[in-house]
């Protein structure tokens, strides 16, 4: 018997197999034969899909890849930019390059 080399499956393939397992139309043995994957692997992918399904419908404004914004840093940056704008506005007004009217 020859030893099979380790295969890596794409996320799309894993999702396809796991969704087929969740449907329950076929047995694990049938799915394993169809997709040429061990039944234990199908069970694991199905479990992962069911555990992480709620993440798909998580908070709409927050992506899983982005860390939450640090509000203190953002407020400090807004304050700094406001000071810079006020300084530049007064300097340009004194130089006569900016009219007092807006």
TrEMBL record:
InterPro entries for the chain: RD_transcriptional_regulator, Transposase_8, Trp_repressor/repl_initiator, WH-like_DNA-bd_sf
Pfam families from the UniProt entry: HTH_Tnp_1 (PF01527)
SUPFAM superfamilies: TrpR-like
Gene3D superfamilies in alphabetical order: Winged helix-like DNA-binding domain superfamily/Winged helix DNA-binding domain
Annotated GO biological process: DNA transposition
Highest taxon of the lineage: Bacteria
Gene Ontology MF term list: sequence-specific DNA binding; transposase activity
PANTHER family the record matches: BLR1542 PROTEIN, PROTEIN DISTAL ANTENNA
Annotated protein name in UniProt: Transposase-like protein
Species assigned in the record: Paracandidimonas soli
Organism ancestry: Bacteria, Pseudomonadati, Pseudomonadota, Betaproteobacteria, Burkholderiales
């Amino acid at each position: 018997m020859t030893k099979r080399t380790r295969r890596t499956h794409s996320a799309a393939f894993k999702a396809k197999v796991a969704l087929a397992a969740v449907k329950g139309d076929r047995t694990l043995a049938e799915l394993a034969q169809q997709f040429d994957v061990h039944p234990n692997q199908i069970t694991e992918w199905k479990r992962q899909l069911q555990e992480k399904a709620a993440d798909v419908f998580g908070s709409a404004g927050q992506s899983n890849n982005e860390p939450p914004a640090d509000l203190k840093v953002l407020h400090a940056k807004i304050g700094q930019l406001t000071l810079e704008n006020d300084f530049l506005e007064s300097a340009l007004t004194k130089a006569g390059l900016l009219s007092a009217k807006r």
